[in-house]
Structure formats: C-alpha cells, structure tokens
Specification:
By secondary structure, this protein is an alpha+beta fold. The protein has two domains: 7-278, no CATH class; 312-377 and 416-480, no CATH class. Helix content is 31%, strand content 29%. It contains nine helices and 23 strands. The chain has helices spanning 66-80, 101-105, 110-136, 216-227, 254-273, 326-345, 350-372, 400-408, 465-480, and strands at 7-14, 35-36, 41-49, 52-59, 87-91, 139-149, 153-160, 163-169, 177-185, 190-197, 210-211, 230-235, 241-243, 279-281, 285-287, 290-295, 298-300, 309-319, 376-386, 389-394, 397-398, 414-418, 427-428. Strands 5-4-3-1-6-9-10-12 form an eight-stranded mixed beta sheet. Strands 18-19-20-22 form a four-stranded mixed beta sheet, with helices on one face. A hairpin with a 2-residue loop joins strand 19 (376-386) and strand 20.
C-alpha cells in the first residue's frame, strides 16, 4: 500500500473548432459547423497516491482511430511524465462535433482535410494543456462512488420482419444506471465529479448545423453549478442505445437538449450530493438524552487514506467473418470508383458524395483484407484501479448488455464499464445480435452496427468476438485485484 494519501487535480478546456469544419457523420451529421449551440470540452482528472499516478481524460469528440488515440495519450503521458498505460481517454461519441482526421480522411474534401489537420493540432495542444493544468492543481483528496438511474435512453435496434430499422423499441430493457464518482478535497468540496451513462449523444439532430456537446453539456453544467469542481461525463456502452427523444428533427434542438441533459445531470447531482467524503455516520444515539429519540450523528473524518492505484491493458486480435473472393472485392472497387465519379459529376447532395467516397475506401480495404488472407484488428482493453473502484474501457461501440455482463463479473465493489475509449475500431455486437441467417456482405442494412463500411472494416467480426472481449475485460479487472 502506498505510503502517502491520495491527491487529485482536475481541469477543463474548450476545444471548439473553427466555423466551417465538418462534423464527422456519413449519411447524417456530416455538414459543416455554422454556429455554436454549446462549447465542447476536453477535461482531465489526475490522481496520485504513493508512486503511482493515473490520468483520465474525457472529451466531446465523435470518433478517434486507435492510432490517433495512442498518439494523443502519448503526448499527454510525455507532458506529465507518466507511462502511456496510465493515461485513458474516453470520448462521448458526440455527433455534433468534429471526428478525428483518420475518420474523415476518406470522405471529405482536400479543404476539409486541411481544416481538420489544423484542428487536430489545436485539439492536441489543448489536451496536453488540460492535463498539465490538472497536475498543477493536485491537492489532498478522498474519493467515493455511488449509483442512480435515469430513463433518458431507449433501445434502438428495431426489426420489422427481416428488415432492420434504426428506430425505437420502448419495451426492450436498457442500462439505466448512472454511475457517479465524487473526488473531493479533505473539507468535502468537489474537485471533480465523474458520471457514467450509456447513450448516443444525438439529441441535437442531423438538421442542426451547430456545434454542440449534446446532452452531456447541460448535464455537466447542472453538476458544476451546484457543487463546483469539474464535471466529467464518461460514455458507457451505448452502442445500441439512443435518447428517448430520438434523433432531433428540428434545426434548433437546444430546448430538447437542455431538457434531456438537465434530467441526466439532475440524477448525477442527486447521487453526488448523497456522497459524503468528509463525514461519516456513527451508531444511533439518544438526542439530548431523550431515550426514545434515536438518530445517527455525523462526524468529521480526520483520516487521509492512501489508495491502491494501478493500470493494465489487454489486447485481443479480432478476426473477421468470411471474406468474399478477390474478384468480388475488386468488382466493388470498380463499382464505387464509378459511383464516386458519377456523383461528383452530378448535382447530388453532399452526403451522397461522402457516402460513395467512404464505400470506395471500404472496398479498397476489403481488397487488402482478401489479399492478406487472415486479417485481424486489435481490440484493446484498459482498466484502472482506484481503491475499490474500477474503470474499464474498450475501443469499440459496445452494446449495453456487454457492459452489464462485464460489471457483473468484476471483483470490484464499483465497476464503471466504458466503450469509446482510446480510439474506436467498430461496433461490437453480440453473437445473438447478428441477423438471422448471418450477416451478408451484399445485404442492405439500416443499423450502423451492421455496416462495417462506416468504419472501413472489411466485414463484421466473427460472432464470437464479443465473448472474447468480455473475457479480456474480466481478466484485466482480476489482474488489478
């Protein structure tokens, strides 16, 4: 056990792009940003106990590749002198902000690529500055966790016979849990409040041209305005969950966004207010020596305990479902090359051009995969231990059922399971989430989790990949116990 007590520091900085930078969508959410509905942020929490320091960063970006996630973590690690393994970055998967350069490279114009290169450099500088600022605010701290519930999400994988629909299934269960971690100074004043929820941030819809943090923005504001400190939203396992209000159809979604985000923030605040890091309740005693009036008095804590801090990473090499023949893959390249040229020559909508370019990039990736013969991708798990609290993150769009299974198998009292961490490789459907009869490369799908072209992955993973991911997460958690 470390010899010194826990110290913590937190900071937050805006990471707004210039006007005109595109959002990261393909069919939806891909237009240029023309105004600001709300600022987007990079936030950092740094924890140190004994010889170990951990840095957790959260942000309002949409997508990030594995390589970009590692590069950003490396910049932070070098700036604050940590091993990269001790730096974790969770993105909210916000659709009303830019995505990463790698994500947009295959589908956007050269001018957009120039803007994105500038933005990536700016965002990286701000991320490093944010982490450095957090280190400079380190002070003695205590930490506790608790849980609540919010019903703002809904299951989105709707089926009408054999047809998949990106819709709503109100009767389907979801993960409604709101996990809260409160980090306070020794007087009980908030340094940081972390809250984890599982839901796609798409309240601000595809018709809106505004930059927005979506519902995590007003949720954080509710918490910060009430108790101070820095509020950090952690995206859980929202791969198959959307907001109850749907994807906004309005051009101005600010009122709906405020309502949904405030509802989540109110629950996070309620839970946070129930956590008392600087006081504890003793056994019941008589009040003013009256024998039949018994209550538990509150006492000030005087201890400043050290916590066991630790980090670990696991890598699993995912394999793919059966690949087509080389001839079929090359035919797809020819098809989408012609389609891109055709769409560019006609007066079509911008999203139609983006989609064709993305499908061409996918077809080229498919050819490379077929030539490889046995392609794999790195599924990465990172886990933090903070005393009796564990945070485990995956680089996939993870379904809520997977998150609940990992949590149920964790050896820790409090386990916060996150997707969208340190980069993204693709969705991670369970074996039972694949279409009846199996996924087909020439199938027409509405559900994004059945569309590997969106991630430029050749085909879907083998159906056993989700169970292997669960095993890796549980193994990582047990290695920290």
């Amino acid at each position: 056990m470390p010899a010194t007590g826990l110290v913590a520091g937190a900071a937050t900085l805006t990471i707004n792009p210039k006007m005109g930078v595109s959002k990261g969508g393909l069919r939806l959410f891909g237009g240029p940003i023309e105004s600001i509905e709300s600022d987007i942020y990079m936030s950092a929490l740094v924890l140190k106990s004994g010889d170990t320091t951990l840095a957790l960063l959260t942000c309002d970006l949409g997508m990030m590749s594995n390589a970009e996630g590692l590069a950003l973590r490396t910049e932070v690690a070098e700036a604050i002198k940590l091993p990269v393994t001790n730096v974790m970055i969770n993105i909210s998967h916000n659709h009303s902000s830019p995505s990463s350069l790698d994500w947009q490279r295959s589908s956007d114009s050269p001018e957009q690529m120039r803007l994105m290169e500038e933005y990536t450099a700016y965002m990286t500088r701000r991320t490093v500055e944010c982490a450095t600022n957090a280190v400079q605010t380190l002070k003695p701290a205590r930490i506790e966790a608790a849980w609540g519930e919010s019903d703002i999400n809904i299951y989105r994988r709707e089926w009408n016979g054999s047809q998949d629909i990106l819709g709503e299934v109100p009767e389907h269960p979801t993960d409604k849990s709101v996990g809260v971690i409160r980090v306070d100074d020794l007087d009980g004043h908030a340094i940081a409040t972390l809250f984890r929820y599982s839901c796609h941030p798409v309240v601000v819809g595809a018709r809106a041209t505004a930059l927005s943090a979506d519902f995590p923005g007003p949720a954080r504001k509710i918490v910060e305005d009430a108790i101070g400190g820095v509020a950090l939203f952690m995206q859980g396992c929202g791969g198959n969950l959307n907001p109850q209000v749907g994807i906004g159809y309005e051009e101005d979604c600010s009122d709906t966004n405020f309502r949904v985000g405030s509802a989540l923030g109110a629950e996070a605040l309620r839970v946070a207010l129930g956590i008392r890091t600087n006081k504890y309740q003793d056994e019941r005693v008589e009040l003013n020596n009256i024998p039949n009036i018994l209550f538990k008095p509150w006492h000030e804590r005087t201890d400043h305990p050290a916590l066991l801090l630790a980090s670990t990473e696991e890598i699993v090499h995912f394999t793919f479902s059966p690949l087509p023949s080389l001839e079929s893959a090359e035919e797809l390249v020819t098809k989408w090359t012609k389609e891109v040229d055709d769409r560019l020559s006609r007066d079509v909508l911008a999203w139609e051009v983006r989609a064709a370019k993305k499908y061409l990039a996918w077809a080229q990736t498919l050819v490379e995969a077929v030539k490889d013969g046995n392609p794999t991708r790195e599924f990465k798990v990172q886990a933090f231990r903070i005393g009796n609290i564990a945070i485990v993150g995956m680089n996939t769009e993870t379904f809520f059922e997977t998150g609940l299974e990992i949590q149920s198998k964790s050896p820790f009292e409090h386990t916060f399971v996150l997707g969208y961490t340190n980069g993204l490789i693709m969705y991670l459907p369970r074996a039972q989430d694949y279409p009846e009869g199996g996924w087909k490369i020439d199938g027409k799908y509405a559900l994004p989790d059945l569309m590997p072209p969106g991630y430029c992955q050749p085909v879907l993973w083998n159906p056993d990949s989700e169970s292997r991911a669960v095993e890796a997460c549980v193994q990582a958690l047990h290695s920290l116990k």
